[in-house]
Amino acid sequence: MSEQEQSTAAPKKRFEPWPWVIVGILATALVVNATFIYLAGKSSNGLVIEGAYRRGITYNKEIDAARRQMELGWRVSLAGSEALQEGRQGAISLTVLDKSGQPVAGATVAGTLFRPTDQALDQPISMSEAAPGVYQAQITPAQRGIWDVKLKAQRGEDVYRFVQRISVKKAQPGE
């Protein structure tokens, strides 16, 4: 072959892997994203609020109730939650004082031990008055971790709602 024929002949095509590498990366990202979307749709959303829509509609009533609660001036504190262990019964107490620091006696106190991530573990709480303004209950948290104690103290027309997040420890052997 002469030099002129070599220069006019088509160049030999080389295999270039880079376009295929880019396509592979994009395909992998697509598969991973599709998998995450599928798993997100199949799993729990973590929302454990009953009647969220109805509660949203009654928002103004909630604001009025909070205003009335502030006007009451009750001071409420929870004790005993720091000693709670999973699967073991423990005592909690709620102290309720009025504006002047006097015990609020004769109230009805009830509520829920609420697990934010698993509604199936929620437990009702019914507290009895152990002393004027001091209400006690025995509870048994099913699991360690974060719980909410949601209580409602009511005396006549006066209502006070109380919520406190608590942490339940792992059960210690021999205790």
Task: Characterise this structure.
With 175 residues, the protein is an alpha+beta fold. It has a domain at 74-168: Immunoglobulin-like, CATH 2.60.40.1930. Helices cover 29% and strands 33% of the residues. The protein contains four helices and seven strands; from the N terminus they run H-H-H-H-E-E-E-E-E-E-E. The protein has a seven-stranded antiparallel beta sheet. It is elongated. The N and C termini lie far apart (96 Å). The relative contact order is 0.15. Keywords: Membrane, Transmembrane, Transmembrane helix.
| Model regions low in confidence, pLDDT < 50 over at least 5 residues | none
CATH superfamily of the domain at 74-168: Macroglobulin (MG2) domain
Radius of gyration: 31 Å
The topology string of helices and strands comes to HHHHEEEEEEE
- What is the percent of helical residues? 25-40%
Strand order of the largest sheet: 1-2-5-4-3-6-7
Task: Kindly provide the name of the CATH class of the domain at 74-168.
Answer: Mainly Beta
Approximate shape:
elongated
Q: Beta fraction of the residues?
A: 25-35%
Class based on secondary structure composition and strand pairing: alpha+beta
- Describe the sheet with the most strands: 7 strands, antiparallel
Q: CATH topology of the domain at 74-168, what is it called? A: Immunoglobulin-like
Q: What oligomeric state best describes the polypeptide chains here?
A: single chain
Number of strands: 7
| Total of helices | 4
In the CATH classification, which architecture of the domain at 74-168 applies?
Sandwich
The separation of the N and C termini measures 96 Å
Mean pLDDT: 89
